[in-house]
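Explain this one:

_____
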Amino acid sequence: MAGDPDLEASFASMQALRDNGADIIEIGAPFTDPMADGPSIQRAGLRALANHTKLIDVIGLVARFRETDQDTPVILMGYANPVHSLGYASFAEAAHAAGIDGTILVDLPPEEDAELRAEYARHDLSVIRLATPTTHEARMAKVADGASGFVYFVAVNGVTGAGSADPESIAGNVEMVRRVSGLPVCVGFGVKNGAQAAEMAKIADGVVVGSAFVEHAQSAHESGDYSKAPRGMGALAGELSAAIAAVVKA
């Protein structure tokens, strides 16, 4: 979450993630009504908002990261309201200039994102959509229409950080999403450690971990030692990366 515990720690955390094996970095933009997020990320968003972190600050954070890293993909995850407030055209232009590769706007359904997609297409930004265990094949065709980059498969019903997913129970869903969309499928929600990530890597093209990283920022905030955020996130990234690599090589 950008701005948690502060923007400087967020920047150091992005570097730590990159240096310890993260293939893609997902940076959160804080919002007042994060309907898809569980308690950990909700608290992170509130801390970031208390620091007066705005969408333009998140874009600036990525631009700073891009000064020394032009290769690591960076995805912005957030909600439609701040993007709409800034203006789709202005946001797409600024995001592209900063080096953002795409976004996940969890509350903007396919039926309502045509204007956004048109602006994204002008700047080669990915529209990353979500699917869930309840997404049936006909609906998946609609979700896939206009999607790009990858599909984010929500492994459990509910919010981020809640419960843990059973790879066997969703393997068929993941395969259907991959077949219908023609895109890589990354699985998230409920993945917290290397062992869980390794199991997900057996059925998915990528594994998304969020709340477990954010909890290191919370620890840093509570202790007042903000350097704990990048240290903790880097260590977790290393654990996840090693566990997934072992599966991929097997």
In short: The chain has one domain: 7-249. The domain at 7-249 is CATH 3.20.20.70 (TIM Barrel).
